[in-house]
Amino acid sequence: MELKTVEGVMESFLRQCGGYAVIDGGLATELERHGAKLNDPLWSAKCLISSPHLIRSVHLDYLEAGANIIISSSYQATLQGFESKGLSRVEGENLLRKSVEIAREARDMYYDRAAKGSRDTFGDKDEIIPRKRPVLVAASVGSYGAYLADGSEYSGVYGKNVSLETLKDFHRRRVQVLADSGADLIAFETIPNKLEAKAYAELLEEEAINIPAWFSFNSKDGTNVVSGDPIAECALIAHSCEQVIGVGINCTPPRYIQGLILSIGRVTTKPILIYPNSGETYDADRKEWLPSNGVSDVDFVSYVGKWCEAGASLVGGCCRTTPNTIRAISKALSSRSNGSFP
Q1: Is 41 exposed, middle or buried (0-12, 13-18, 19+ CB in 10 A)?
Q2: For the segment 167-202, what is each residue's pLDDT rounded down to a tens digit?
Q3: How many CB atoms lie under 10 A from the CB of residue 94?
Q4: Which of 9, 78, 250, 284 has a C-alpha 20 to 30 A away from that of 186?
Q5: Which residues pair with 121 in a beta bridge?
Q6: For 202-224, what is each residue's pLDDT tens digit?
Q7: 261, 268 contact by CB (below 8 A)
Q8: Is 173 buried (19+), middle (13-18) or exposed (0-12) by CB count in 10 A?
């Protein structure tokens, strides 16, 4: 699906999806389940070099689970990060393009299978459903903190030496490459502070980026983004940027999402997207998820109705969510579109 103009793009897409769209789930979680070893500063982007077939398989798993939007494996793929691994700038740019190419290949494979009349299974019930859903490929842009791989994407504290211009210079070439990669939109994800949101907005305008974008923030208290900046102020930056077609929250515990949606809805009329994590806690020093009271798929999906009532129209999952989570969300949103949401 090609997006020619920014205005009304997401609203049109949501109409095609029946009013609500499903975003995919955790990429790294599934890559590890497929056997990938991700204890590396490049995290899931490491697989662009070592095992791109695993990335394609995970994308396809999410498409078959019901996703309308799949997010590329470029979250932690930065030119600076690739250079630290000994790759040239050209090789790094090619890997960025490859992240989108893999996602597009997965979409093509899904469409091919859909044409052959495959089946879906919800719970214990096997049922034939329309499978060729509208699908967008979003090119992921992680925060400066994601590149640092020191946990600062979960604090938003970059230090006094990191200015607006520092962030713009850091992200500029990656955004340019991804904008011309064949993706349908750019997903600026896990934005931890107002400064980086402003850097993204200015970059989109300065570089006349010709595809739409969304801004997705993270929070640990339900009121502010992780840096302490009020979520409403951050959302207002997204609202004021013409290229931004959606604003929301990702990688945040489910219990905080409803209040954040309401806060965002007070300052923007743009579609609101949310893809929380499972509620578990990440230890940045040990680079692993700690055992905690994360929610089950059943509990996670029980929130979906409240999120939609609060104003969300795009729902998915982030870290530690799986195709089973997305399958359940897809079923719940389908029921809501049909007027039978529990």
Answers
A1: middle
A2: 999 999 999 999 999 999 999 999 999 999 999 999
A3: 15
A4: 284
A5: 126
A6: 999 999 999 999 999 999 999 99
A7: no
A8: middle
